[in-house]
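Explain this protein:
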Amino acid sequence: MKTGKKKKDISPWHVAVAAEAIAAGQFARLGYDVSVQYGADQPQYDLIVAKNDNVVKVSVKGSQDGSWGLTQGHKKNVDYHQAADLWLAKHTNKLIYCFVQFKGTTIDELPRIYLAVPGEIAQRLKDTANKRGDTILHESHTYKMKKAAGYGTTDKIPDEWKFSKERMEKLMAEINTQIPVL
């Protein structure tokens, strides 16, 4: 009997656990020391990664549908831009988000991984849907409905967010040269 709903490959909990494990492994492959909080989806961050004297918290978000819902909890009585600003205000300046995407991957492939800091993410959310904004970060989404705010446009994670040694070194250097907020 069909219900009309598309079955997900695995449960959201399994996606979170797998994403965290894969992210930890990839950071270790780059030579970072990795500390994992016990259990997936911890508040604020999931991993701490360090190299030499540089340390950063990492929040890992897994997905198997091509997107990550981020600011919907802040959307009450505000527009999309304000929701992004409220979300951003709750984050430390020493945090990296690691987005892990399983959609379209097989078990013998690594998922696609992206790294971004909260300020970059908030701006991407504001630029979504032809600058109307959204609560969802899309890996790649084309607006096909004529009534959609972003009709005819495609929102996509910037190529420079792709997980790489260079991207991580850049973010780590930026974060660890910031003046701490007291």
User: Anything to note?
Assistant: The CA atoms of residues 84 and 123 lie 8 Å apart. Strands lie at 33-36, 47-51, 54-63, 67-69, 95-101, 112-116, 136-138, 140-142, 154-156.
